[in-house]
Amino acid sequence: PSHRDYAGRNQVLNPDGSNLGEETCFSEDTMRYSEWIESEVMVDFERAFQGVPAWRPRENGGDFKFHTASSCERSIYPLQPETSQICDDNDWDCRMTDEAIENEKEKWRRWEKEHSHPTAEEDLLILPNRVFGFIFRTRKWGCLELGFGSDGEAKLKERKPRPEPWNELQLPDGHKRVVQSLVESHFAKRDSGKSLQFDLVRAKGKGVIFLLHGVPGVGKTSTAGMLKHPCVAEANHRPLLPITCGMEVETRLEKDFRLAQVWNCVLLLDEADIFLAQRNENDVKRNALVSVFVRVLEYYEGVLFLTTNRVGVFDEAFKSRIHMALYYPPLEWKYTKRIWDTHLMKLQASGIVEVDDQDILEYAETSFEKQAAKGSPVGPVWNGRQIRNAFQSAVALAGFKHQGGKIRLEREHFERVSRVSNEFNHYVWSIKCQSDAEKAEKWGYRFD
């Protein structure tokens, strides 16, 4: 398997123009139609053919069309006695093809023995112009075309990890060190093939399971990985495989865990409540799901992150199976300021936005104090996701009807965005007359 970045369209046709498998051959985790893809991918022919058997090369050579001359093509004139002997050119085509293949076999054996790759242009021409792989963004198998896009860039490229991906993530003191040490230790042991076995039952307890719980928007998902910037995954040069809670969750669960283990992924189960909720005697289906998940956790040998903002609903069976539980509280001002600083630096680095750093940061602190005040109808304080959204909206306001030059981002743009946000927060607060934290505590979800 090979972890790569891909930007292009997937293929749905064979080289001869026929459909790449019949419609009835495809499962839900297969790309059926040609779509634009911009995602991390895992190129893996073996598991792609296991998942989509219709893609396997046909043993009778059905993927390629050979022309065989018919009798009427060979000759429509009888040979005269005085005519010199004429051989059938179709026979010569077949003979020369067999000789060429026989001459190439020695080279193919050498490639296989030395684990080397073809280098000459004539050798590269015999390779297919497509590969089969798993697309992490859609979580589906697809046929990916090789070559170059309209921008001159290769469609399938080696991944270029970001330097120091942890620097942009603002976490409570100590969380980064704990996560980094456990994850790096796990991958080091797995790569070396040496590890300590603490469980009495062989093959159990070899994974590392994190539970990240707390209020929304404070970095739980981003610790394992977010859409563009996975921290744990990228820092350890591993792909991130997120699991979602779909309709056929039970049938996909073991399949996803198996792929993650084979590819050495960091596995992310975001909003894990559906898998981990308390069992009860009246819901047999949920009890079965929890039991399946408990069994899968026992034998999973990779790194798994579970995130939730409703830790109070967890079944007690999971408490002893979690290696490290980390609480993410509401943001303090020092973390909020760092998030604002990070976004302001990104805007300045873009070269298209001019910002008044000091004035905007003064506004951010004033706004934070108002939202953090006890009983504030405009609270709670903005989380990381809300701050990002505020920047997007403020830049859009600053650029509206902009005429040339750099966009000027000022305090007033954030004030307008904040006014709308605070009106909504006050409206929601008026319905129940209690904050999100108070509601979560009342229902037993969490205690902030």
Automatic annotation (TrEMBL):
<dbReference type="InterPro" id="IPR003593">
    <property type="entry name" value="AAA+_ATPase"/>
</dbReference>
<dbReference type="GO" id="GO:0005524">
    <property type="term" value="F:ATP binding"/>
</dbReference>
<feature type="domain" description="AAA+ ATPase">
    <location>
        <begin position="206"/>
        <end position="332"/>
    </location>
</feature>
<dbReference type="InterPro" id="IPR003959">
    <property type="entry name" value="ATPase_AAA_core"/>
</dbReference>
<feature type="region of interest" description="Disordered">
    <location>
        <begin position="1"/>
        <end position="23"/>
    </location>
</feature>
<dbReference type="Pfam" id="PF23232">
    <property type="entry name" value="AAA_lid_13"/>
</dbReference>
<dbReference type="InterPro" id="IPR056599">
    <property type="entry name" value="AAA_lid_fung"/>
</dbReference>
<protein>
    <submittedName>
        <fullName>P-loop containing nucleoside triphosphate hydrolase protein</fullName>
    </submittedName>
</protein>
<dbReference type="InterPro" id="IPR027417">
    <property type="entry name" value="P-loop_NTPase"/>
</dbReference>
<dbReference type="GO" id="GO:0016887">
    <property type="term" value="F:ATP hydrolysis activity"/>
</dbReference>
<dbReference type="Pfam" id="PF00004">
    <property type="entry name" value="AAA"/>
</dbReference>
<keyword id="KW-0378">Hydrolase</keyword>
